[in-house]
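Q: Start with the shorter request: fold the first protein.
A: Done. Sequence, then structure:
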Amino acid sequence: MDIEKIKEILPHRYPFLFLDKILNLEENKIIALKQITYNEWFFIGHFPDFPIMPGVLMVEAMAQASGVLIYKNLVIKEKDSVPLFLGIEKIKFRKTVKPGDTLIIEAELKNKISNIFKIIGKIKVNDQIVCEGELILGFEKREKILQN
């Protein structure tokens, strides 16, 4: 799945879309890719002399991959539903991510209760885990979000 297909599912756009491609999509698992370049907007301030990707943006990339997984495979098909990040647990950052790294983002469904999904996520660079943890996601109707 290329970036145009991803944009049909996720509401995120540049500079906050952290998926370039979906490499594999199964019923309960997804593998996505994000190429990190020196031109990423966050390197301007994080950090100019030692550019590393902020950990929260790695978690966001896992959440976006999880949103695609849920939308495509777990019967969330409504066009007016927005994926929402509800929580994170047990997040660990193992290594830094630098310009030139290719993130391989994996997300797998752990369990589902009603419209809430718990996902096990991890990101690898060169087959080494750089970030891992559990994410909690849900979907909400756009009009309900706008009412709040």
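Q: Next, the second protein, separately.
A: Sequence, then structure:
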Amino acid sequence: MEKLIIQSDIDKLPEVERFVDAVCDTYNINNYVATISMSLLQAVKNAIVHGNGSNPEKHVTIESDFCKGGVYFKVSDEGQGFDFKRYGAMPDQEEQGMGIYLMRTLSDKMTFTDNGRAVCLEYVIDGIEASRALERIMTLHNFYSPKMVNA
């Protein structure tokens, strides 16, 4: 198991990127770096800002290990937790739930534990199905595409 502990400071995010790079090197899955980084950085940012209130006295722990069929990353904070069940498949507003949406879309499985103080993101490495990859691309494309407004 690989483990990284950082202060709750957004300026520490480059350490997380280096951690993801190292884990992907270890498991020889460098073609997954972008997908894992984008969702994991969002999880860590949520832990820093929302979980720990950007308090540098608190820490965020990132753990990773190989699991059946892939790799997982667990992000834990020292906050009070949150009601993760209130966030659906799509964010209600542009700002609320966007991070969770990205994490859910880019990972193969997302699980919250410890009353929302920890999130586990799993990625299937055995070979992602082409249909799943296309689904992710289309989901993100549709979300970010400008909405047509009828006048």
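Q: Describe the second briefly.
A: DSSP finds four helices and five strands in the chain. The CA atoms of residues 118 and 140 lie 24 Å apart.
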